[in-house]
Amino acid sequence: MYQQMIFVNLATADVPATRKFYSDLGYGINEQFSSDDVVSVMISDTITAMFLAPAHYGQFTRKKIVDSRTASETLLCLSAESREKVDELVEKAIAAGGTSHGDTQDHGFMYGRAFDDLDGHTWEIMWMDPAAVQG
């Protein structure tokens, strides 16, 4: 079966700082699709986050580019393999210059936290008990 991929495109004010931030979180950089104006961050085999300088991002839309530090454009949610991995990734993000976003969500079978990256993009990280998904 064909496995679709997702390429999340987000504007960034500082491509080199964004490259360092996501590298510090442990994500790989796809140099083939990165340049001075773009950094391609490999989240998984099927998820890539493309961070584009505003002028480059503007080539793909006629809409106003929001300032994600003051307006919400999207909420991105990534799964984690355990509660501990949720905490680990969020703490890495904070240590790398991101900020905590909102309260910890603990529903027993589901656990999540969130952070804002250097540009204010909100990334939710959540774990869900596999038994709860099957039920």
Question: What value does the average pLDDT take?
Answer: 95
Low-confidence stretches: none
Order of helices and strands: EHEEEHEHEEEEH
Ends distance: 25 Å
Strand count, sense and barrel status of the largest sheet are:
5 strands, mixed
What oligomeric assembly is this protein in? single chain
Q: What portion of residues is helical?
A: 10-25%
> Helical element count?
4
Name the shape in a single word: globular
Number of strands: 9
Strand content: 25-35%
Structural overview:
By secondary structure, this protein is of the alpha+beta class. The protein has helices spanning 15-24, 54-57, 83-95, 130-134, and strands at residues 6-11, 28-29, 38-42, 47-52, 75-79, 99-100, 105-106, 110-116, 122-128. Strands 5, 6, 7, 8 and 9 form a 5-stranded mixed sheet that branches. It has a 4-stranded mixed sheet with strand order 1-4-3-2.
